[in-house]
Design brief:
- Helix content is 49%, strand content 9%.
- With 322 residues, the chain is α/β, with parallel strands linked by helices.
- β2 and β3 form a beta hairpin.
- The radius of gyration is 24 Å and the shape is elongated.
Protein backbone atom coordinates (compact mmCIF):
# COMPACT_ATOMS: atom_id res chain seq x y z
CA UNK A 1 0.00 0.00 0.00
CA UNK A 2 2.85 2.37 0.79
CA UNK A 3 4.63 1.61 -2.46
CA UNK A 4 1.44 2.22 -4.46
CA UNK A 5 0.57 5.34 -2.44
CA UNK A 6 -2.76 3.80 -1.42
CA UNK A 7 -2.42 3.91 2.35
CA UNK A 8 -5.90 4.34 3.90
CA UNK A 9 -6.69 7.12 6.34
CA UNK A 10 -7.34 4.62 9.16
CA UNK A 11 -5.81 1.23 9.96
CA UNK A 12 -7.07 -1.19 12.59
CA UNK A 13 -4.40 -3.69 13.62
CA UNK A 14 -5.95 -6.65 15.41
CA UNK A 15 -4.69 -9.80 17.10
CA UNK A 16 -4.41 -11.48 20.49
CA UNK A 17 -2.66 -9.66 23.29
CA UNK A 18 1.04 -10.45 22.95
CA UNK A 19 0.94 -11.00 19.17
CA UNK A 20 3.15 -7.96 18.41
CA UNK A 21 0.61 -5.36 17.25
CA UNK A 22 2.47 -2.55 18.98
CA UNK A 23 5.81 -3.62 17.50
CA UNK A 24 4.28 -3.84 14.02
CA UNK A 25 2.82 -0.34 14.39
CA UNK A 26 6.20 1.02 15.47
CA UNK A 27 7.92 -0.50 12.43
CA UNK A 28 5.21 0.95 10.19
CA UNK A 29 5.65 4.42 11.74
CA UNK A 30 9.41 4.23 11.32
CA UNK A 31 8.86 3.33 7.66
CA UNK A 32 6.42 6.20 7.08
CA UNK A 33 8.42 8.88 8.89
CA UNK A 34 11.83 7.83 7.60
CA UNK A 35 13.25 7.60 11.10
CA UNK A 36 15.02 4.26 11.23
CA UNK A 37 16.53 2.67 14.35
CA UNK A 38 15.83 5.72 16.48
CA UNK A 39 13.81 6.05 19.64
CA UNK A 40 10.22 5.66 18.44
CA UNK A 41 9.85 2.45 20.44
CA UNK A 42 11.68 3.81 23.47
CA UNK A 43 9.54 6.93 23.48
CA UNK A 44 6.30 4.96 23.30
CA UNK A 45 7.45 2.51 25.96
CA UNK A 46 8.28 5.44 28.20
CA UNK A 47 4.71 6.63 27.70
CA UNK A 48 3.41 3.20 28.67
CA UNK A 49 5.16 3.54 32.04
CA UNK A 50 3.50 6.90 32.72
CA UNK A 51 -0.17 7.55 33.55
CA UNK A 52 -0.22 9.88 30.56
CA UNK A 53 -3.04 10.00 28.06
CA UNK A 54 -1.64 12.08 25.28
CA UNK A 55 2.05 12.46 24.50
CA UNK A 56 4.02 13.76 21.55
CA UNK A 57 7.13 11.85 20.59
CA UNK A 58 10.35 13.09 19.01
CA UNK A 59 8.42 13.13 15.73
CA UNK A 60 6.27 16.20 16.26
CA UNK A 61 3.28 14.92 14.30
CA UNK A 62 3.00 11.58 16.09
CA UNK A 63 0.20 11.57 18.68
CA UNK A 64 -0.47 8.82 21.23
CA UNK A 65 -3.79 8.06 22.88
CA UNK A 66 -4.07 5.32 25.49
CA UNK A 67 -5.71 4.24 28.72
CA UNK A 68 -4.32 4.52 32.27
CA UNK A 69 -5.51 8.02 33.05
CA UNK A 70 -5.49 8.95 36.74
CA UNK A 71 -8.95 10.01 37.90
CA UNK A 72 -8.43 13.30 39.68
CA UNK A 73 -11.33 12.63 42.08
CA UNK A 74 -10.56 9.06 43.14
CA UNK A 75 -6.80 9.16 42.30
CA UNK A 76 -7.22 5.68 40.82
CA UNK A 77 -6.01 4.58 37.40
CA UNK A 78 -8.78 4.17 34.82
CA UNK A 79 -8.53 1.20 32.47
CA UNK A 80 -10.69 2.72 29.77
CA UNK A 81 -10.20 5.42 27.16
CA UNK A 82 -12.65 8.20 27.85
CA UNK A 83 -14.23 10.92 25.77
CA UNK A 84 -11.99 13.79 26.87
CA UNK A 85 -8.92 11.81 25.83
CA UNK A 86 -10.37 11.09 22.39
CA UNK A 87 -11.38 14.72 21.94
CA UNK A 88 -7.83 15.84 22.74
CA UNK A 89 -6.49 13.17 20.39
CA UNK A 90 -8.75 14.28 17.52
CA UNK A 91 -8.10 17.99 18.14
CA UNK A 92 -4.37 17.38 17.92
CA UNK A 93 -4.79 15.51 14.63
CA UNK A 94 -7.02 18.24 13.19
CA UNK A 95 -4.29 20.85 13.35
CA UNK A 96 -2.75 21.82 10.03
CA UNK A 97 0.62 20.23 9.32
CA UNK A 98 2.83 19.93 6.27
CA UNK A 99 4.21 16.49 7.19
CA UNK A 100 2.24 13.30 7.68
CA UNK A 101 0.25 13.28 10.92
CA UNK A 102 -0.05 9.93 12.68
CA UNK A 103 -2.42 9.14 15.52
CA UNK A 104 -1.76 5.91 17.41
CA UNK A 105 -4.41 4.65 19.84
CA UNK A 106 -3.70 1.67 22.06
CA UNK A 107 -5.81 -0.10 22.80
CA UNK A 108 -8.93 1.15 21.01
CA UNK A 109 -11.25 -1.58 22.32
CA UNK A 110 -10.88 0.08 25.73
CA UNK A 111 -12.85 3.12 24.56
CA UNK A 112 -16.20 3.60 26.25
CA UNK A 113 -19.18 4.25 23.98
CA UNK A 114 -18.97 8.04 24.32
CA UNK A 115 -15.30 8.01 23.39
CA UNK A 116 -15.97 5.77 20.37
CA UNK A 117 -18.71 8.12 19.15
CA UNK A 118 -16.33 11.05 19.51
CA UNK A 119 -13.71 9.32 17.36
CA UNK A 120 -16.30 8.42 14.72
CA UNK A 121 -16.61 11.96 13.38
CA UNK A 122 -12.86 12.17 12.71
CA UNK A 123 -12.97 8.79 10.95
CA UNK A 124 -15.95 9.89 8.84
CA UNK A 125 -14.27 13.15 7.78
CA UNK A 126 -10.58 12.24 7.46
CA UNK A 127 -8.10 15.06 6.93
CA UNK A 128 -5.62 14.84 4.11
CA UNK A 129 -2.12 13.71 5.07
CA UNK A 130 -3.35 12.03 8.27
CA UNK A 131 -3.18 8.38 9.34
CA UNK A 132 -4.99 6.96 12.36
CA UNK A 133 -3.79 3.60 13.67
CA UNK A 134 -5.98 1.69 16.12
CA UNK A 135 -4.46 -1.25 17.97
CA UNK A 136 -7.20 -3.65 19.04
CA UNK A 137 -7.24 -6.84 21.12
CA UNK A 138 -10.95 -7.61 20.72
CA UNK A 139 -12.56 -5.96 17.64
CA UNK A 140 -16.08 -7.04 18.67
CA UNK A 141 -15.90 -4.60 21.57
CA UNK A 142 -15.79 -1.73 19.06
CA UNK A 143 -18.97 -0.44 17.39
CA UNK A 144 -19.42 -1.64 13.81
CA UNK A 145 -19.39 2.03 12.74
CA UNK A 146 -15.75 2.28 13.89
CA UNK A 147 -14.68 -1.05 12.40
CA UNK A 148 -16.27 -0.36 9.02
CA UNK A 149 -14.28 2.86 8.59
CA UNK A 150 -10.87 1.25 9.12
CA UNK A 151 -8.88 -1.11 6.96
CA UNK A 152 -8.14 -4.15 9.08
CA UNK A 153 -4.74 -5.81 9.30
CA UNK A 154 -5.03 -8.96 11.40
CA UNK A 155 -1.99 -10.64 12.95
CA UNK A 156 -2.97 -14.30 13.46
CA UNK A 157 -1.38 -16.81 15.87
CA UNK A 158 1.89 -18.11 14.48
CA UNK A 159 3.50 -21.54 14.91
CA UNK A 160 6.05 -21.48 12.08
CA UNK A 161 9.80 -21.90 12.18
CA UNK A 162 10.45 -18.17 11.79
CA UNK A 163 8.44 -17.46 14.95
CA UNK A 164 10.25 -20.20 16.88
CA UNK A 165 13.61 -18.75 15.80
CA UNK A 166 12.48 -15.24 16.81
CA UNK A 167 11.63 -16.54 20.31
CA UNK A 168 15.01 -18.29 20.57
CA UNK A 169 16.80 -15.03 19.76
CA UNK A 170 15.12 -13.46 22.80
CA UNK A 171 16.27 -16.19 25.20
CA UNK A 172 19.59 -17.14 26.83
CA UNK A 173 21.39 -20.12 25.29
CA UNK A 174 20.61 -22.31 28.32
CA UNK A 175 16.85 -21.80 27.97
CA UNK A 176 17.04 -22.53 24.25
CA UNK A 177 18.60 -25.90 25.08
CA UNK A 178 16.37 -26.75 28.05
CA UNK A 179 12.95 -26.18 26.47
CA UNK A 180 11.06 -27.30 23.39
CA UNK A 181 10.23 -23.82 22.07
CA UNK A 182 7.78 -25.20 19.51
CA UNK A 183 5.83 -26.97 22.26
CA UNK A 184 5.82 -23.83 24.40
CA UNK A 185 4.50 -21.83 21.45
CA UNK A 186 1.65 -24.32 21.02
CA UNK A 187 0.89 -24.09 24.75
CA UNK A 188 0.74 -20.30 24.36
CA UNK A 189 -1.74 -20.67 21.46
CA UNK A 190 0.72 -19.23 18.95
CA UNK A 191 1.33 -15.95 20.83
CA UNK A 192 5.13 -15.45 20.80
CA UNK A 193 5.43 -12.63 23.34
CA UNK A 194 3.59 -14.77 25.91
CA UNK A 195 6.28 -17.45 25.56
CA UNK A 196 9.07 -14.91 26.05
CA UNK A 197 7.35 -13.28 29.02
CA UNK A 198 6.65 -16.64 30.68
CA UNK A 199 10.23 -17.83 30.30
CA UNK A 200 11.63 -14.56 31.61
CA UNK A 201 9.45 -14.75 34.72
CA UNK A 202 8.12 -17.44 37.05
CA UNK A 203 5.04 -18.19 34.98
CA UNK A 204 6.64 -21.04 33.05
CA UNK A 205 7.72 -22.83 36.23
CA UNK A 206 4.18 -22.45 37.58
CA UNK A 207 2.79 -23.76 34.30
CA UNK A 208 5.08 -26.78 34.52
CA UNK A 209 3.78 -27.52 38.02
CA UNK A 210 0.18 -27.37 36.81
CA UNK A 211 0.95 -29.54 33.79
CA UNK A 212 2.80 -32.18 35.80
CA UNK A 213 -0.04 -32.33 38.32
CA UNK A 214 -2.70 -32.74 35.61
CA UNK A 215 -0.76 -35.39 33.68
CA UNK A 216 -0.12 -37.34 36.86
CA UNK A 217 -3.81 -37.09 37.79
CA UNK A 218 -4.98 -38.53 34.46
CA UNK A 219 -2.32 -41.25 34.51
CA UNK A 220 -3.02 -42.21 38.13
CA UNK A 221 -6.68 -41.43 38.96
CA UNK A 222 -6.29 -42.87 42.47
CA UNK A 223 -4.17 -39.83 43.34
CA UNK A 224 -7.13 -37.48 43.00
CA UNK A 225 -7.90 -35.49 46.12
CA UNK A 226 -10.31 -32.61 46.64
CA UNK A 227 -7.46 -30.87 48.43
CA UNK A 228 -4.96 -29.67 45.84
CA UNK A 229 -2.10 -27.20 45.90
CA UNK A 230 -3.69 -25.00 43.23
CA UNK A 231 -6.48 -23.51 45.33
CA UNK A 232 -6.79 -19.87 44.27
CA UNK A 233 -5.22 -20.68 40.89
CA UNK A 234 -8.36 -22.11 39.28
CA UNK A 235 -8.03 -19.93 36.19
CA UNK A 236 -4.41 -20.98 35.57
CA UNK A 237 -5.22 -24.65 36.13
CA UNK A 238 -8.18 -24.55 33.71
CA UNK A 239 -6.06 -22.80 31.07
CA UNK A 240 -3.33 -25.44 31.39
CA UNK A 241 -5.88 -28.26 31.23
CA UNK A 242 -7.50 -26.69 28.16
CA UNK A 243 -4.11 -26.63 26.41
CA UNK A 244 -3.53 -30.29 27.27
CA UNK A 245 -6.93 -31.33 25.92
CA UNK A 246 -6.39 -29.39 22.70
CA UNK A 247 -3.03 -31.10 22.30
CA UNK A 248 -4.61 -34.49 23.01
CA UNK A 249 -7.18 -33.89 20.28
CA UNK A 250 -4.37 -33.05 17.83
CA UNK A 251 -2.56 -36.26 18.79
CA UNK A 252 -5.74 -38.24 18.20
CA UNK A 253 -6.70 -36.62 14.91
CA UNK A 254 -3.27 -36.24 13.33
CA UNK A 255 -1.83 -39.45 14.75
CA UNK A 256 1.23 -37.46 15.77
CA UNK A 257 2.89 -37.93 19.16
CA UNK A 258 4.30 -35.06 21.23
CA UNK A 259 7.19 -34.91 23.67
CA UNK A 260 4.77 -35.43 26.58
CA UNK A 261 4.77 -39.23 26.94
CA UNK A 262 1.93 -39.27 29.50
CA UNK A 263 -0.27 -37.12 27.25
CA UNK A 264 0.34 -39.46 24.29
CA UNK A 265 -0.90 -42.39 26.38
CA UNK A 266 -3.93 -40.46 27.65
CA UNK A 267 -4.87 -39.35 24.12
CA UNK A 268 -4.51 -42.84 22.67
CA UNK A 269 -6.85 -44.34 25.29
CA UNK A 270 -9.46 -41.55 25.44
CA UNK A 271 -12.40 -41.31 23.04
CA UNK A 272 -12.18 -38.41 20.60
CA UNK A 273 -15.80 -37.33 21.05
CA UNK A 274 -15.30 -37.31 24.85
CA UNK A 275 -12.25 -35.05 24.43
CA UNK A 276 -14.30 -32.63 22.34
CA UNK A 277 -17.13 -32.61 24.89
CA UNK A 278 -14.64 -32.07 27.69
CA UNK A 279 -13.03 -29.18 25.79
CA UNK A 280 -16.45 -27.57 25.40
CA UNK A 281 -17.05 -27.95 29.15
CA UNK A 282 -13.65 -26.43 29.92
CA UNK A 283 -14.36 -23.38 27.76
CA UNK A 284 -17.73 -22.96 29.45
CA UNK A 285 -16.11 -23.37 32.88
CA UNK A 286 -13.60 -20.62 32.10
CA UNK A 287 -16.45 -18.25 31.28
CA UNK A 288 -18.17 -19.14 34.56
CA UNK A 289 -15.14 -18.06 36.60
CA UNK A 290 -16.34 -14.46 36.31
CA UNK A 291 -19.74 -15.32 37.82
CA UNK A 292 -20.89 -16.19 41.34
CA UNK A 293 -20.52 -19.94 40.78
CA UNK A 294 -18.80 -22.09 43.43
CA UNK A 295 -15.36 -22.27 41.77
CA UNK A 296 -14.01 -25.01 44.05
CA UNK A 297 -16.98 -27.29 43.34
CA UNK A 298 -16.75 -26.57 39.61
CA UNK A 299 -13.04 -27.41 39.54
CA UNK A 300 -13.62 -30.60 41.53
CA UNK A 301 -16.14 -31.78 38.92
CA UNK A 302 -13.76 -30.94 36.07
CA UNK A 303 -10.77 -32.69 37.66
CA UNK A 304 -12.76 -35.84 38.46
CA UNK A 305 -13.72 -36.20 34.80
CA UNK A 306 -10.16 -35.46 33.67
CA UNK A 307 -8.73 -38.07 36.04
CA UNK A 308 -10.93 -40.71 34.35
CA UNK A 309 -10.88 -39.36 30.77
CA UNK A 310 -8.94 -42.39 29.47
CA UNK A 311 -11.42 -44.92 30.85
CA UNK A 312 -14.83 -43.27 30.58
CA UNK A 313 -17.59 -45.48 29.17
CA UNK A 314 -20.17 -42.68 29.23
CA UNK A 315 -19.53 -38.95 29.30
CA UNK A 316 -21.03 -37.35 32.44
CA UNK A 317 -22.72 -33.98 32.89
CA UNK A 318 -20.17 -31.65 34.46
CA UNK A 319 -22.15 -28.41 34.32
CA UNK A 320 -25.89 -27.87 34.50
CA UNK A 321 -26.45 -25.31 31.70
CA UNK A 322 -30.15 -24.76 32.36
Amino acid sequence: MIQQDHLPHALMITGSEGMGKFEFAMQLIEKLTGYQDLNVKDNAKLDLEQPTLLRRSFYQNLIYCRDSEINEETMKVSNEIRIKQVRAFCNALNKTADDLQIGLMFYADKMNISAANSLLKTLEEPRKNTLIILLVHEPKKLPITIRSRCQNIHIPPSFDEATINWIKEKLPIQQQQDFDIGQLLHNANGVPFNVVDDLNGNEFLEYQKRQNYLLSLASHPQKYSKKNEFEGDEKGLLKCLTNLVIEAIKIKQLNRATGLVELNEIANQAKLDFLYKFLDDLNHSSRLLNTSINIKLLLDNVLIVWSHISHLKRYPIIIDRN
